[in-house]
Amino acid sequence: MRLHEIAYCRAGDKGTVATLTVVPHDDAGYDDLVAALTPDRVRAALDRWVGGEVIRHELPLVCCLQFVCTGVRGGGVTVSAELDTHGKSLSSRLLDLEIGVDHSDISRSIG
Fold first, then answer.
1. Cα dihedral value 54, 60, 62, 63, nearest 10
2. Dihedral sign computed on CA atoms, order 99, 25, 31, 21
3. Over residues 72-94, mean pLDDT
4. How many angstroms separate the Cα of 108 from the Cα of each of 3, 20, 103, 111?
5. For the chain, what is the domain count?
6. Is there a contact between 25 and 7 (Cβ–Cβ < 8 Å)?
7. What is the Rg, in whole angstroms, of the alpha carbon atoms belonging to the chain?
8. Residue 34 burial by CB count (10 A; 0-12/13-18/19+): exposed, middle or buried?
9. Which 8-state DSSP code applies to residue 98?
């Protein structure tokens, strides 16, 4: 299953740093996201666009994960010649990630 089937994602930027916040469609899916989305996995999925470190912040009280991605390709919004200078497409790229979570596992945790 792909991440977009169980979660939403929003992107933001500040210079050469992009933030990606991943929120499950249902709070019961939070633990699945924690297990599936390691910083290394996110870094590998975004390797073409992120040149630095990926730091994960777990926010269990609001059931979301925030990833801080450093070294965003192109040098940031003010100097980049790339089409997506704000990095908004990074969220779509992450949502396309194949994750090792089964629909039936999520149904059991919700129901």
1. 70
2. positive
3. 64
4. 18, 28, 9, 5
5. 1
6. yes
7. 14
8. middle
9. B
What does the block give as tokens for 111? 């129901």
- Its sign, for the CA torsion 75, 9, 4, 45, is positive
pLDDT tens profile 22-58:
999 999 999 999 999 999 999 999 998 888 999 999 9
Q: What's the mean pLDDT in 53-78?
A: 88
| C-alpha angle 17-59-106 in degrees, rounded to nearest 5 | 110
Tell me the torsion sign for CA atoms 21, 25, 26, 31. Answer: negative
Residues with Cβ within 8 Å of residue 27, at least 6 apart in sequence? 63
Q: Are 67 and 56 within 8 A, CB to CB? A: yes
Domain that holds residue 57: 3-110
Structure tokens at 12: 């933001």
pTM, full prediction? 0.81
Residue type, 28: A
